[in-house]
Design brief:
The complex is a heterodimer. By secondary structure, chain A is an alpha/beta fold. Chain B is globular and about 35 Å long. Classes of the chains: A alpha/beta, B alpha+beta.
Chain lengths: ~450, ~130
């Protein structure tokens, strides 16, 4: 699609047609007091040369090195073809177009994406993606309150083992809509949510959030938790790592009836970590709840001549049509990111994704074992985990260890003290399939030097 | 001009109201409304036993073009819903005044019926709506 700027002549012609004097006059109905007239914190423009220089300088501040940090964003190998194809002109402006059906290629890609996600999660439907995992959880919580017609409640149980930044984002988005997120303690030995931590008589609750794996990388007893929620009239919102689904039971099969809504962060599927974004959120659900699902779905259909075609469905509930009654203020999807994800999944295939998942699991296990051989390093949790592990130092502070590892060119892990001070000098490590045996050894040797 | 049966009452938001022998009222959307909305793809019915005030949103009808609210013309309690619409939402298009009814309500304040349009008043209101 070519870039076609509006010339002054074009603008004048358009204004003449609608009988307006200027573009400014189109905004007359917004009261002056509500208008931002100047952008105080935005600096004046820089030339291309200046901005290139500035950005190179900033990029050089990035801490390079072997990264063993997980905690929500994961370094996976991305085949070169993924972004080579994604950045072709045909895909590069893949934002869902306003005249959607004129862009059959874009719609077909979104349809393929939805099919893959529905398959991966074992759910009936997937939307065309959301902004990211954290806002995806917020949307899932809002959706659950709308969808659970048996419940009049706006209470949602959210285990403390859910990613703390997701909990913060979800709370920010839902609290002013009268929803309350109620926390559930994790078991300090096992590192996951035990049935005993759940209330005996929860009262009317709209939903229970179940992370799998949870923020610590530990596996939750998803079958038991799912059945408990359904017995108490609550819907189940699964927050999952998509890579892990190549190995773990998909949410659609949890417990007797399966999860009702599934959401999560799509970054592990071919998106570089790039300082925190852009990423994409995914959301799937049971078909019975599809009309409460935010966003849009692409459907496959046939045209008047019987030829296969794709169309934008479910948009009748988005804000350009439903205004304040829309299912969400988010009326879009992360077109470019899910283009990459779709290509990534199709290049790896089920077997490739399984290898990524199992290598990441094995590498982390190996590393955790090596590190915890030191007398002053202990494993914190006893339950099985996916590709993260929590370790604790008995005679050093996490900050000191991380700082010294960095001097060895190693980004050693995620400091848990900010969100989980009760765990002491604990940090979380993650070794994905990108790490070789010698990388793991390098880490173990460096740590030995630091703590012994 | 669309079909506006003389024996029904109407609202300016395009609901029709049919008084039943037992004192309840059947409610649907008018021929004019279904024509504006286009092909129906889904009707989100109210829950039985829901107690409503006149003017409350109580159902959503979704066409290929838009999803629109249906408002309760009267205060009262939902006593029956037309479950046939779940599988056959197109009945709202084909036969809006008979098979396309949406719910039945037992009014708590039957005097509110006096606030509704008759067919003639609705015809004027609906034609103004077109401009």
């Amino acid at each position: 699609m070519p870039y076609i700027p509006h010339t002054d002549d074009d603008i004048k012609k358009m204004l003449d047609v609608i009988g307006a004097d200027s573009i400014e006059s189109l905004f007359d109905e917004i009261p002056a007091a509500l208008r931002q007239t100047s952008l105080n914190n935005v600096p004046t423009g820089l030339s291309e040369m200046q901005i290139s220089r500035l950005m190179s300088e900033r990029a050089s501040n990035d801490q390079q090195g072997l990264s063993f940090i997980g905690a929500g964003a994961y370094e996976h190998h991305i085949p070169a073809a993924v972004w080579e194809i994604t950045t072709r002109g045909e895909f590069y402006s893949a934002y869902t177009p306003y005249q959607a059906e004129a862009s059959q290629g874009t719609l077909q890609l979104l349809y393929e994406y939805q099919s893959m996600m529905a398959h991966l999660t074992a759910m009936e439907v997937s939307n065309a993606s959301l902004y990211d995992g954290a806002s995806g959880l917020a949307e899932a919580v809002l959706m659950a309150v709308r969808a659970n017609r048996k419940s009049k409640s706006k209470r949602i149980l959210v285990p403390d083992s859910v990613n703390p930044t997701y909990r913060q984002v979800a709370n920010t988005i839902v609290k002013n809509q009268g929803l309350s997120l109620e926390s559930i303690a994790y078991d300090s030995q096992a590192g996951n949510t035990r049935l005993a931590s759940l209330p005996d008589e929860p009262g009317d609750i709209a939903a229970l959030v179940i992370p799998q794996p949870n923020f610590f990388g530990v596996l939750e007893d998803v079958d038991t938790l799912t059945d408990w929620a359904h017995q108490h009239g609550a819907l189940v919102i699964a927050v999952v790592n998509p890579t892990s689904l190549a190995l773990l039971k998909p949410p659609g099969e949890w417990g007797e009836k399966g999860a009702d809504i599934v959401c999560g962060e799509g970054q592990p599927l071919g998106i570089p970590m790039s300082s925190g974004g852009p990423y994409f959120g995914f959301m799937c659900c049971k078909k019975q709840f599809v009309r409460q699902m935010p966003g849009r779905i692409i459907g496959r259909t046939v045209d008047l001549d019987g030829k296969t075609g794709f169309s934008l469905t479910l948009q009748a509930r988005e804000q350009h049509i439903r205004r304040s009654k829309a299912t969400s203020n988010i009326c879009t999807n992360q077109g470019l990111m899910i283009t990459a994800a779709t290509i990534y999944i199709s290049l790896l295939g089920p077997e490739g994704l399984q290898q990524v998942a199992s290598h990441s699991h094995n590498n982390t296990q190996t590393l955790a074992k090596q590190l915890s051989q030191h007398a002053s390093v202990e494993m914190v949790f006893s339950s099985p985990s996916f590709h993260e592990a929590v370790i604790r130092f008995t005679n050093q502070s996490v900050e000191t260890v991380l700082e010294q590892l960095q001097q060895h060119g190693i980004l050693g892990g995620y400091n848990l003290k900010q969100h989980f001070p009760e765990l002491g000098e604990a940090m979380m490590i993650c070794a994905t399939e990108t790490k070789t045996d010698s990388d793991l050894k390098q880490y173990a040797d460096a740590l030995a030097e630091i703590i012994d | 001009m669309s079909n506006i049966p003389a024996h029904l009452k109407y609202t300016k938001t395009h609901e029709w109201i049919e008084e039943q022998d037992d004192g309840s009222v059947k409610i649907g959307i008018t021929d004019h409304a279904q024509d504006l909305l286009g092909d129906m793809v889904f009707v989100e019915l109210p829950e039985l036993e829901t107690v409503l005030e006149a003017g409350d949103e109580c159902a959503v009808i979704e066409s290929v073009k838009a999803a629109s609210d249906v408002y309760s013309p009267l205060s009262g309690e939902i006593v029956e819903i037309n479950e046939d619409l779940i599988d056959n939402p197109e009945m709202v298009n084909k036969n809006p005044y008979v098979d396309g009814w949406i719910f039945r309500l037992m009014p708590s304040d039957p005097e509110q019926l006096g606030n509704l349009f008759d067919a003639e008043a609705y015809e004027i209101a609906a034609s103004e709506d077109d401009h």
